Amino acid sequence: NDFGSLADAGTVYCAKCNNVSYKDMNLSHYNYHGVYFFNTTNSSVNNVTANSNIFGIYLERSSNNTLTNITTTSNTYGIYFTTNSTNNNIKDGNISSSSYDVYAASTSINNVLTNCTYVLAKESINSGSTIIRRWYYQAYVNDSNSIAVSNANVTGYDVFGSQDFRIVTNS
After folding, report:
1. 35 neighbors 27 (Cβ within 8 angstroms)
2. What rounded mean pLDDT belongs to the chain?
3. Would you place residue 169 in the very low, low, confident or very high pLDDT band (cuts 50, 70, 90)?
4. DSSP 15-63
5. pLDDT at 75 over 60
C-alpha cells in the first residue's frame, strides 16, 4: 500500500503493517512520536523530517523496513530501535537530537545506518543490540597536474587499523 505524500501529518503510527510506503512528511509538532512502527515489516518511509518530538523515529518489534532521506532534529531521541527490531535500513540520514541521536535497546540487531550523519557520542547501544554503520565512498587519485591516475591501489582502514577495502582505480 502506497500512502503517498502525507505532507504535514504530524505523527504516523503503523501497527502490524506489511509492505506499506510513506513519503514526503513533515512530522514536527511536539508529539510523542514522529514515526512509530510497531510490529511492522517490509515497509518504507522516504523523505521525512521529524523535529521537536520525544522520539523522531521509533521502531518496536519491526523488521526489514527501509527509511531513506531522514532528518531528525531537536527530538529527545532521533532514531530509537527497541524490542527485537531487526534488519532495518536507515539511508541518507541527518540525525541531531538533544539526548540521543541513535538508541538501540532490547535485542535490536543488524540495523544498518548508511550515509547517516550524527554524533557518535550521542549513540547508545544496549547489550544484545547492534548497529551497523556504513558510508558511501569514492576515491579520486590524481597526479600533481590533477590528471587522473589509472590502476592506482587505494586501501581503506577502519579506526582499529584493520583493512576495510582495497580497490584499483580505473580512470
Report:
1. yes
2. 90
3. confident
4. ES-BS-EEEEEE--SS-SEEEEEES-BS-EEEEEEEESSSEEEEEES-B
5. yes
Position 29 scores a pLDDT of 76
Report the alpha-carbon distance of residue 79 to residue 94 in Å, rounded.
Answer: 11
Neighbours of 55 (CB within 10 A): 24
Strand partners, 157: 163
Which stretches of 83-162 are assigned E, i.e. beta strand?
89-96, 100-104, 111-114, 123-125, 131-134, 153-157
Enter the C-alpha cell of residue 19: 509492505
Helix (H, G, I), strand (E, B) or coil at 120: helix
Cα 35 to its chain centre, rounded Å, is 13
Q: Which three cell numbers stand for residue 147?
A: 590528471
Q: Model's pTM, two decimal places?
A: 0.82
- The SS3 of residue 122 is helix
Question: CB under 8 Å to 112, separation ≥6 — which residues?
Answer: 87, 88, 89, 90, 131, 132, 133, 134
Question: Cα(66)–Cα(117) distance, rounded to whole angstroms?
Answer: 17
User: Which DSSP helix (H) or strand (E) runs through 24?
Assistant: strand 21-26
